Amino acid sequence: MAKVTLKDSGVLFKEDTHQYFRQSDGKELKGITDLLHRQLFPTEWDSIPEYMRDKILNASADYGHSVHKSCEDFDKEWINDGTVELQDYIEICKQYGLVHEASEFTVTDGENYASNIDKIYRTGEKTVCIADIKTLYGKIKGDKLEKCRWQCSIYACLLEKQCNKIKVDKLYIIHLRNKQRKNGTFDHVAELIPIERIPSDICNELLQADLEGRQFVNPYAIPEDFNPKLIRIKELMEEKTKIEEELYSLKSDVMSSMEILDVTSWATDTMRLTRKLPTTRSSFDFNSFKAAHTEINDYDKYMKTSNIAGSLMIKVA
Questions:
Q1: Mean pLDDT throughout 255-262?
Q2: What is the pLDDT confidence band of residue 303, given thresholds at 50, 70 and 90?
Q3: Domain 11-221 is in which class?
Q4: Residue 225: is its pLDDT beyond 80?
Q5: Domain spans of the chain?
Q6: In this structure, how many other beta carbons lie within 10 angstroms of the beta carbon of residue 296?
Q7: CA–CA distances in Å: residue 138 to residues 24, 134, 151, 246, 249
Q8: Contact status, residue 122 vs residue 4, Cβ threshold 8 Å
């Protein structure tokens, strides 16, 4: 696969201070991480006691930097430092066919914002996917996942603006972690997480709102008056799960007793219990039929279409 052509940002990144400067006139540009903290996730560190916050965040940043550097050295120079995190990264790239194009690639809108994309992988002559390496503790879900989604979506928006012949077709999180716990076991994570992209016009609205000093109205935010309902839904779903588990256990005990006693029906004043005997069921194997009847090219006239009502899917984390 031929290399894609990425246009240079014209931005100088100072790694020691994590600052971005436009090379043409030295203007300092704002970073995307701080923007997301200001506009969408101002309470992301509130769960960390203030007296421990700097220590924990610095330690997390140091660990993240070491993993990023390890992966970058391998992609650029084929240096393998033998760490578990790097071996996991190499395996993920092999498994998902990630072909490295660039690491720590700076993107900018040219006027006000700039940031570095952890990884760019080529998927075609004019298409790429981008990935952000995370070394976070625990599963990446909730606000953590949503922040990554915004971050990568803005990166994709800026990359396509900077390199106008390039299209970003997929976004990923590469979650790598192998930290020893106090009990001696390891917190080991190695996964590739696909992200749903936020449209570029919404990303541009966020950048514009921040530039103008006004609060961005997040179209994906859940209205506050729904929070009590969502809390109650979660409580009911958890209660439902417990009830279903208990019901399954009781039904299994009754079924077992009826089998031992060789009875198929029991009745009380309030219910009837019927034991269905084992049986078989036949169904039509459409794929096998197609394979056996290759002379049929059009199956539409045999297909029946019916409307299915919309529904709400809820998954409790």
A1: 93
A2: confident
A3: alpha beta
A4: yes
A5: 11-221, 224-274
A6: 11
A7: 42, 11, 19, 30, 32
A8: yes
